[in-house]
DNA sequence: TATGAATGAGATTTCATTCAT
DNA sequence: GATGAATGAAATCTCATTCAT
């Protein structure tokens, strides 16, 4: 009846446990949602019994919060370094930014985050605010700088920057979401990278001034 | 009770009940997620007590399924008619298509659907499949025809059609999702329509061949 | 495994339930203590299933608090009326006070309260404060008035009033506690009333001035 | 670890461990009750970690039982010697008995016992029986002898002895209980000894025959 | 038909106890 | 011996669902 006990006893005990539990939780939250994920599921996937997660986290809710704080925010440093690169032109920088975002996050287990945050933000407003302030806004600011820079140099048309940034982000975010959903709006067998390529080609083309095309 | 004069009030609503319950459920599922929404909440928002939904639906799960079948799919007819319009050029048709999508669905309570389906598709695979087959695929097919048409006429560049379709859809879908989330990646005070405008300007520009620009 | 389900279905549903649950809880708390009393025990004794108490009380803790507030405090009015009686002399009044206390509370299920409060006061400080302020202090004040009155009239010796009050209360309180304990310090077959008689005889004798004796 | 110079410290305490654990348990049981006291709390207060008590005691229940057997019963010898004293009159002997009881037990950590036993006797009937037989009954027998002696000599009135004994004990027991409760029925700042004095004055007075007063 | 008290399976969480280190 | 991570039984509490009224 209880699905708590497993046939295992006294496996290793280590400082790796919290990380393992968070990763198990992230996978399951992304798959089933927060509420539909049972603590026992998390424990089982982490290879422990049902009481063990509570040695490391006060509650299920704290697992959720820790997951954002400890798994996601550290990734932010990545984006920062993108702009420190040598000058390669705005279009190339945009390309690099979006592809790095995809390979570093979209192809890791963290790709689950957008789906998770979209679904649960209303239920965990403080965590959502953290995610927004520490992850989305800085990321958008970076992207904005690239676009503004491109406009200033005449590489891009003078489009409304805010809207362009969102238009650029949307496909990447949607791609991550669709990866974790049974409702893909793109061919699930297609290569996400080639989709990104095509998308980039389209919007970069849209950003270019006539002069650059002619 | 007995022959109280308010009895009429109840019978008047009787026919509307199932619809009211589904709408209440849609709102709440979108806000909190399926699992976190209590049957009692649905009942209360529909203006009935907790036993009443069971007169019309076998279970919570059936409410979810009915919601997709009876609230969403009927909307599909809308899109079909879009292409029956007189010939106005591919760009204008694209514009019309996306704006109609937005005003008819994005500005209605149905804008909750993408968030809901993304979050719950894995937990309700049959419903997700229905949604996918009856709503997304036909919609994409419509959009695809518009793009192909535009390419055939020389109005658009010869881009990969599938990817272009997805790139066109992403911002609209994301806009709907963000509307129902505390994690907006766009200025929540901004007018969604002006965002759509800017997005369309960008991608239409990206679709145009050099000749059209020069 | 779960001791929650009982073989009963759809018994009466009434406004009597909360009271029944509180009485069941009082009996069990007094018998086993708060922590050792399971919610299922309370439900079973109240003749309902394990989920029912939660329709009326938010938590086990609230049952405890309500029990004091709703079962005990109303009894206080009793004591108030004792002093309104016609003048019968201080000794007779003392006798009446202590005997009424015993018959009204000591011989009712409320006799469990001293044991319960002594055991749990530290774990529920706010409830303990309520009990202290609303029950004990007023009761002591009443008793104090009787003693002071007796001294003023020359019926009693001029003893320290506070201490006399406590000395008078102790046997009654201990009698209630012993009734609910396996550690009786008096013969459990003895009649509590005859113990009260003897005790009263002793202390009344102790209160009398020489003149009254000689 | 290895040959650290503090190793001595541990071995020095080794022999004292069981006693320290029992004392920690007594304090906590008295404060929170048996069930609400966690083994980890006991360990922590005893200055060890949560596994250590199990080296000395089979279970929490055994700690409770040992506590009574090893901490309390040895104190009983004290009372025995009280009556071996030279003849000083019944009243003085009563006074000595109660004051010694108070100073030896009431002012030690063992004052927690009445509260603890009252609260838990029903949950640990064998321990309660032990406590009753080995502690309370012998104590009452001692007190009874003093009272009977006093009556035989004409120092006390011919009161019912059993009831008098209980009346004499009640205030002392209550005083111990109130010391460990947030529900004191006496001024918590008052000196317990002066309360005992006053109480004794009252009941001794009540015990005296007319002749002794006049 | 509608109500809402009652049900009871199942989820989260606690903690006495074990045992590898 | 001592430690404290891990265990897992058992407790509290929730809520989808039922059904007497």
TrEMBL record, chains A, B, C, D:
UniProt cross-references to InterPro entries, sorted A to Z: Homeodomain-like_sf, HTH-type_TetR-like_transc_reg, HTH_TetR, Tet_transcr_reg_TetR-rel_C_sf, TetR_C
Annotated Pfam families: TetR_C_11, TetR_N
Domain HTH tetR-type intervals: 15-75
Residue ranges flagged as DNA-binding region: 38-57
Keywords associated with the record: DNA-binding, Transcription, Transcription regulation
SUPFAM superfamilies: Homeodomain-like, Tetracyclin repressor-like, C-terminal domain
PANTHER family: HTH-TYPE TRANSCRIPTIONAL REGULATOR PKSA, HTH-TYPE TRANSCRIPTIONAL REGULATOR RUTR
Annotated protein name in UniProt: TetR/AcrR family transcriptional regulator
Lineage: Bacteria, Pseudomonadati, Pseudomonadota, Betaproteobacteria, Neisseriales
């Amino acid at each position: 009846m209880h699905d708590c006990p497993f046939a295992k006893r006294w496996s290793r005990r280590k400082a790796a446990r919290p990380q393992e539990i968070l990763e198990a939780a992230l996978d399951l939250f992304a798959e089933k949602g927060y509420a539909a994920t049972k603590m026992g599921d998390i424990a089982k996937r982490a290879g422990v019994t049902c009481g063990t997660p509570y040695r490391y986290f006060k509650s299920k809710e704290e697992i959720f919060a820790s997951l954002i704080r400890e798994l996601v925010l550290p990734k932010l440093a990545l984006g920062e370094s993108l702009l420190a690169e040598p000058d390669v032109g705005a279009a190339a920088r945009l390309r690099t930014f979006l592809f790095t975002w995809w390979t570093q996050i979209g192809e890791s287990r963290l790709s689950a985050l957008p789906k998770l945050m979209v679904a649960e933000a209303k239920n965990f407003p403080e965590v959502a605010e953290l995610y927004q302030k520490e992850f989305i806004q800085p990321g958008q600011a970076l992207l904005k700088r690239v676009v503004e820079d491109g406009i200033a140099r005449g590489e891009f048309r003078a489009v409304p920057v805010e809207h362009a940034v969102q238009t650029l982000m949307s496909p990447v975010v949607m791609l991550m979401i669709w990866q974790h959903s049974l409702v893909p709006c793109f061919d699930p067998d297609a290569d996400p990278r080639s989709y990104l390529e095509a998308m980039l080609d389209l919007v970069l083309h849209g950003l270019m001034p006539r002069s650059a095309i002619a």
